[in-house]
Design goal:
By secondary structure, the chain is α/β, with parallel strands linked by helices. The protein has eleven helices and 15 strands. About 45% of the residues are buried. The chain binds NADP nicotinamide-adenine-dinucleotide phosphate and ligand G4F.
Length: about 375
C-alpha cells in the first residue's frame, strides 16, 4: 500500500507537527509551499533534506498550481491545512481570506476529482470551532448549530459544507476536523497564547515593559497542537468518512492564561479593574504589567468556545487529556524563556516586533 501524504500549509504550526508525525509512520510526505521573497521555513527546516520529505510550490489561490502538485504527487491522503488562519486579519483582508479559506478548499477537491483520484485519495479539511462563533450551546459538539462570527469563520463554513457536498455527491472520502484552539511553542506570535508567553518571558528578562491585550474574558478550549495532529490522521483511517470535534473539554479565559504564564516565570499577577480599565499587576512590586487596549478588540468576537470531544474519544480512541492546560502553558513559557535568553544579537529585531505588538501595529 502506497502511503503518500500531501500537506498544504506545511510551513504552519500544524503542518510541521503533522509532517513529523507522518514521517514517523513511514509516509512519503509532500508539502506545498508558496513562493516568497524570503525563505521563512523555520518550522520545517529540520525536515528538509530527509529522503521522504519533498516540497512543491503551489498557492491556494491558484488552481493550476494545486492541480499540478496533485497530479504529480498522486497522494493517497491530502491534509488541507493551508489558510489565512488569523481571525483579526480576516476583518482586514476578508476577500483574500474567502479566496484561500473557502474557494481554496474547492480547488483542492476539484484537483482530486480532475486527476481521477476520487476513489484512492482521502482528504482531511482543517475546519474550526470558530464555526460555532456566537455560540448557541455550551459545550459544543458535532450537533451544535453553526453561527460564524467573522469573515474567517464564514469562509471556513463554506469549506466545511463543500467537503460534505463532495462526500455525498461523488462518494469521496473527505472529512472535516472541527478543531478547537491548539497551541504550542511553534504557534504564530500574534495569536494570544504565544503573544502572552513571549511577553511573560521578555518582561521577566527585562526586555519588555508591559503587555497590551484585548478581551481578557474571552474563553477558549486550548489543547496542544502536537496531540491534535494525531487526530487528523485518525480521522482518515476510519472505515467511513465522518466529521469530528477535537477539543480537550476544558475551558479557560485569556486572563487565566496570563496568570499561569506569568506565574511560570515567577511573577504573581493580580487583576484589578474592569473592561478597558482592567490591569494585571505584579503583586510583589505593584508594577502594571498587563493592560487592555481597544486596538485588540474585534468587531465581533467569539467569547465562549468549549468543545465536547466525546465522539473523538469513543470512535477514534483519542485521549483529549494527554496534555493539561497547565502543562501546555508551562511548555510554551519554558520554550520562550530559553528563546528570549538566547536572542542576543537578534534581540533588537525581536524587541521591535514586541513594540509593534504593543502598539497594535501587528495584531
Ligand atoms: P498557521 O500556522 O497560520 O499556518 C497556515 C499555513 O497556511 C502556513 O503554512 C501558510 O503558509 C499557509 N498558507 C496561507 N495562505 C496560503 C496560500 N494562499 N497558499 C498556500 N499556503 C498558504 O495555521 P495553523 O495554526 O497551523 O492551522 C492549520 C489549519 O488549521 C488552518 O487551516 C487553520 O485555519 C486551521 N485551524 C487552526 C486551529 C488552531 O488553533 N491552530 C484551530 C482550528 C483550525 P506561509 O508559511 O507561507 O504563510
Ligand atoms: O489567539 P486568538 O487570536 O485565536 P482565535 O481567534 O480563537 O483563532 C484561533 O483559533 C481558531 C479555533 O477556534 C482557529 F480556527 C483560528 O485559525 C486561530 O488559530 O484569539 C483568542 C481570543 C479571542 O477571543 C481574542 O479576542 O483571545 C482574544 N484576545 C485578547 N487579546 C486576543 C488578544 N487575541 C489576539 N490575537 N491578540 C490579543 O492581543
Amino acid at each position: 500500500m502506497r502511503k503518500v501524504a500531501l500537506i498544504t500549509g506545511v510551513t504552519g504550526q500544524d503542518g510541521s507537527y503533522l509532517s513529523e508525525f507522518l514521517l514517523e509512520k513511514g509516509y512519503d510526505v509532500h508539502g506545498m509551499i508558496r513562493r516568497s521573497s524570503v525563505d521563512y521555513r523555520e518550522r520545517i527546516a529540520h525536515l528538509e533534506g530527509r529522503p521522504n520529505f519533498h516540497l512543491h510550490y503551489g498557492d491556494m489561490g491558484d488552481s493550476m498550481s494545486i492541480l499540478q502538485v496533485v497530479s504529480k504527487v498522486k497522494p493517497t491522503e491530502i491534509y488541507n491545512l493551508a489558510a489565512q488562519s488569523h481571525v483579526q486579519v480576516s476583518f482586514d483582508s476578508p476577500e483574500f481570506t474567502a479566496d484561500v479559506d473557502a474557494t481554496g478548499v474547492l480547488r483542492v477537491l476539484e484537483a482530486v476529482r480532475l486527476c481521477g483520484l476520487t476513489q484512492t485519495c482521502r482528504i482531511y479539511q482543517a475546519s474550526t470551532s470558530e464555526l460555532y462563533g456566537k455560540v448557541e450551546q455550551v459545550p459544543q459538539n458535532e450537533q451544535t448549530p453553526f453561527h460564524p462570527y467573522s469573515p474567517y469563520a464564514v469562509a471556513k463554513l463554506y469549506g466545511f459544507w463543500i467537503v460534505k457536498e463532495y462526500r455525498e455527491a461523488y462518494g469521496m472520502y473527505c472529512c472535516s476536523g472541527i478543531l478547537f484552539n491548539h497551541e504550542s511553542e511553534r504557534r504564530g506570535e500574534t495569536f494570544v497564547t504565544r503573544k502572552i508567553t513571549l511577553a511573560a518571558a521578555r518582561i521577566a528578562q527585562g526586555k519588555q515593559d508591559r503587555l497590551l491585550l484585548g478581551n481578557l474574558s474571552s474563553l477558549r478550549d486550548w489543547g496542544y497542537a502536537k496531540d491534535y495532529v494525531e487526530c487528523m490522521w485518525l480521522i482518515l483511517q476510519q472505515d467511513r468518512p465522518d466529521d469530528f470535534v477535537i477539543a480537550t473539554g476544558v475551558q479557560h479565559s485569556v486572563r487565566e492564561f496570563c496568570y499561569h504564564a506569568f506565574r511560570r516565570v515567577g511573577i504573581e499577577l493580580e487583576f484589578r479593574g474592569e473592561g478597558l480599565d482592567e490591569q494585571g499587576i505584579d503583586k510583589a512590586t505593584g508594577r502594571v504589567l498587563v493592560e487592555v487596549s481597544p486596538d485588540f478588540y474585534r468587531p465581533t468576537d467569539v467569547v465562549n468556545l468549549w468543545g465536547d470531544p466525546t465522539k473523538a474519544r469513543e470512535i477514534l480512541g483519542w485521549n483529549p487529556s494527554r496534555t493539561s492546560f497547565e502543562d501546555l502553558v508551562a511548555l510554551m513559557v519554558d520554550h520562550d524563556m530559553a528563546k528570549v535568553a538566547a536572542e542576543g544579537a537578534a534581540a533588537k529585531v525581536r524587541t521591535n516586533l514586541a513594540e509593534y505588538l504593543e502598539k497594535g501595529i501587528v495584531k
